[in-house]
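User: I'm putting together a small comparison set for a docking exercise, and I want a reference complex before I start. The sequence is below, and the ligand is iron/sulfur cluster. Could you produce the 3D structure with the ligand included, as structure tokens?
Assistant: Of course. I'll restate your input first, then give the structure tokens for the complex.
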Amino acid sequence: MASGTPTRTTCPYCGVGCGVLATPQEDGSVAIKGDEQHPANYGRLCSKGSALGETLSFDDRLLYPEVDGRRAAWDEALDLVARRFSETIVEHGPESVAIYGSGQLLTEDYYVANKLMKGFIGAANIDTNSRLCMASSVAGHMRAFGSDTVPGTYEDLEEADLVVLVGSNMTWCHPVLFQRLLAARERRGTRIVVVDPRRTVTAEAADLYLAIAPNSDVALFLGLFDHLDRIGLCDSAYVGRHTAGLGEALGAARECGFPGALGATRLPAEQLREFYTLWSRSERVVTAYSQGVNQSVVGTDKVNAIINCHLFTGRIGRPGMGPFSLTGQPNAMGGREVGGLANMLAVHLDINSPRHRELVQSFWGSPGIAERPGLKAVDLFRAIGEGQVKAIWIMGTNPADSLPDADAVQEALRACPFVVVSDVTRTDTTRHAHVLFPAAGWAEKSGTVTNSERRISRQRSFLKAPGEVRPDWRIICDVAARMGFAEAFDYRSPAEIFREHAALSGIANAGTRDFDISACAELSESAYDALAPFQWPRRQGDMLDSATTRFFAEGSFYTPDRRGRFVPTPVALQAISPEFPLILNTGRIRDQWHTMTRTAKTPRLMSHYAESFCEIHPEDAEDAGIAPAALVRIVSPRGAAVVRALVTERQQKGSVFVPMHWTDQQTAQGRIGAAVHPSVDPISGQPGLKLSGVRIEPFDAAWYGFAVLRNRPEAIAADYWALAKAEGGWRIELAGTELVEDWADYAAGLIGSGEDLETLSYSDQDQASFRLATFSGDALLGALFVAPQPVAVSRTWAVEHLCAAEIRGTERLRLLSGRPGADQADPGPIVCACFSVGANQIAAAVENGAETVDEVGQSLRAGTNCGSCRVEIRRLIDAAALKKAV
Ligand SMILES: Nc1nc2c(c(=O)[nH]1)N[C@H]1C(S)=C(S)[C@@H](COP(=O)(O)OP(=O)(O)OC[C@H]3O[C@@H](n4cnc5c(=O)[nH]c(N)nc54)[C@H](O)[C@@H]3O)O[C@H]1N2
Ligand SMILES: Nc1nc2c(c(=O)[nH]1)N[C@H]1C(S)=C(S)[C@@H](COP(=O)(O)OP(=O)(O)OC[C@H]3O[C@@H](n4cnc5c(=O)[nH]c(N)nc54)[C@H](O)[C@@H]3O)O[C@H]1N2
Ligand code: SF4
Ligand SMILES: [Mo]
């Protein structure tokens, strides 16, 4: 841990699972670099990974346990949780308590949480946010393969001739893997097809973009299946030897056929034909998919519709081909391995099998084992609301924002007799906690995670834990011990837990189950410390440096007859009520991670989008009377949210898109989860987070405001606000439905006041135009701009004043006028977060002759680090070229 020594660890964000070198510096900061030896990223990092060092401050960390909102000793908090859980179980049975975990826990944390609930409490009410993320992929894999197996590897994306990205905004969500794909395209001319109802940056990088109607993926792939059959592309040797169930599945495909696919997807016929031809002619094809597939009420069918086409052509498990589920969270895969979902057991054993239950029970030496699946996330929170579940322990996830019908979730938590939350910081969920456990964060804890290609990597601590925080595995074991299970939870290190997990994976396995890492069952502490990234399986006797692994090229599925299954997937379209006629689609943006508890701490990552927004097609905006950059209210039968309108043709008519990220911590009414419907896929239990019926209406603003502030305001008096960290302070967007009487007074409340401060202000007759800047000595303390329409002040330029040591004379007046002078360039909205390069700077570089993304990079460095803004830079170059042409 000495300063200057890099620690090899793994990025805590997405499922790409990049290796990171973290080096603590003398001044207390941490230098972050990509690990060139890690096979996921070979040294690259994206904007979020690169900014990890800026998220490690302790300022808003939870440092001590709390009971009912007051600081408590560990013993008191642990005793209370153990006692309340035990009492609730005695009084109401084991199914009256629950754990809600996360794909962001480490495998070792996850393993002990699952062991406690299924093996010692004896019920299966442990579910996780992976239910919102990977459940449909898991269910689709189980139906087709008999196991939750991702057959391929990242190299397949580089060795394919065609990569189809279905419901994946890979440029922003799996950026480093996407850069690997683009590099492969440079080398071998890979064709990329993107299937997404929304024209994303990924769609713009594609060779063919299919803007399908929302949720029509099943029909798209049924049409493909039918096409493959018609042109005789069945690999009959593979199908005959290794699969079952073709007849019925093919029946469904024939029933749909080309006309069915055409009708459902609403694509032009020639585009559909082009896609089918491309797919059929490319033996090396990878169909990679993410939440546009999983987060649907027909998500499992989408997965199987894709897998069917690969089984039919035998294009699976060989280099450069296969279906590929892109995992979201850093350890969603590890969570599945330990059996963290309510319908799984452990190490890919089946909770419904008495033999498997008996294996696990005797291995654990547990008093009784869960005999049936527990409640899945959406049902679990409903059961809390209805009073069936009376004690819940939430770890490493923020359901008050991220579950659908999020207001009902908060109601349920409010009504629940006993809520425990383990987190690193305060969130919308922690405000409901009776007991709050301060968890060690990324930099302070050790263990393992598994990425999208089944690669297990070490996470290693490199900072001393602050305050009294403890790693999650330790907290769980401490509670388990106090519940009377001390012996079974007597672990001294994560290595000990990992060994047990590895040993369990080998029990009665002998190749009958995919997940087997029993070669690691005897790892010493030092071997665990030094463990290099490896892919499973690693069976007993396997070499520690065994080559890349793939599954199913020669069949050997994990069904009872070892045959893969075709699954019939009939077309089912979701009805939309006329009262809520627009489809609300939700998802991610490049620089934020989920509910922003870490990424919102860095100004760099807040500069790409500083507030939430709703992408609306121009015609829908006009129909609803919503002007660009105005505020829009999104209303569903469940709840509502208010965000900025982003009117754009990238959005197809009839749908709107809102990022999932913003919470009550950053904005007034921006929790989009409140408007999202809780309907789920009946097979996987995964909610259809990409499709909710809504209507949109203008937010009736009497005034709009924008302010830059040195200090975070204590209270914000506005019907709408969105606060973001900026270099040197904060920036805030404001709006109100009623005019403010005294703007100077209002500004003082926001910025601060005092005799030693100097204030300049300007106001108009109309009561809705006002500007004010307050200076403390030579430096800016804050500035407020108010207007009857959305405030037209360059945000980047205004924010820069917070860092200026000295602002005097005309510069002060210019700031008040809200316009940069001729000698001061306005960088424009930030495009490249790594080097803070704005759109205007890029436009100027293009004006000065830069014609390609690389040339822009040469003059500004933009796009030369993580590369995830390169598509946006391309878009700006094209726009400038178009402007020149007309
Ligand atoms: N920057 C960033 N990266 C992340 C995360 C993050 O929070 N921020 N989170 C990580 C996690 S946990 C996950 S799960 C992944 C998610 O990664 P992705 O799945 O790539 O991201 P999303 O934005 O959720 O959704 C992907 C796309 O699905 C599209 N879509 C919506 N409906 C449909 C449909 O019916 N059919 C099709 N084909 N597409 C549809 C949406 O328009 C959207 O562009 O990202 C991971 N990476
Ligand atoms: N509308 C809509 N909703 C969605 C989605 C969507 O696309 N649309 N996507 C869904 C998906 S795919 C996902 S994965 C979820 C993600 O949703 P969440 O899991 O709710 O989101 P996070 O913000 O990642 O929450 C992680 C929490 O763990 C805390 N934390 C970080 N490290 C640690 C640690 O080591 N220990 C502990 N105990 N806590 C820690 C963080 O501070 C944070 O509060 O959201 C889902 N919800
Ligand atoms: S792509 Fe980015 S977020 Fe994902 S693991 Fe790599 S550095 Fe982290
Ligand atoms: Mo996810």
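The mean pLDDT is 94. Residues 832 and 862 are 6 Å apart (CA to CA).
User: Thanks, that's exactly what I needed.
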